[in-house]
Amino acid sequence: MSKVVKFIEKIASKIPGYGGYMNRENSRETDKALREYIAKKFLSLKSVIDDKKEDALEDIGLEFLSDLDRLSSILDRLHNQILYAARGYAGVFDRIKVYEDELETLYAFDAEFLSHYEELEKTMQSLFSQGGENAKQELRAARKALEALEKKWQERGDLFESFAK
Fold this sequence. Notes:
Elements lengths: L2 H11 L4 H26 L1 H16 L4 H19 L16 H15 L1 H10 L3 E4 L2 H28 L3
Helix pairs in contact: 2-4, 2-5, 3-4, 4-7, 5-7, 6-7
């Protein structure tokens, strides 16, 4: 960071209320950036599913395309739920106020949720690994894993709502 920027920030921090405002803005931006990152990671799995659709068409047949489309739809829904989730920031007129301790709880939840990505990615990558033999079971396991993550994400909403009490 340049000396000029540091100097301006130092002066700005002297303005009553400005420092707190900037911290809240940074919290809002951090929360939004984290959710965007998580959403993007999960949405990237759609390209894996698209590859699996090609594999299915070339090697296995059409019978699994609807299952793959279902996985793709769940990923879209999960992506949107993450991206547009209630933010971990409370404006002056917001119904639910999120304070620093609660914000840390949301960050921890989001970080733990992101940890499930790698496991899900492996599950998606392994689809059709044995041809069509175990495809139904693999697709069912992938769908259940996605549905469990969708349910887990809904817990974040419940957690957020609990801050209002």
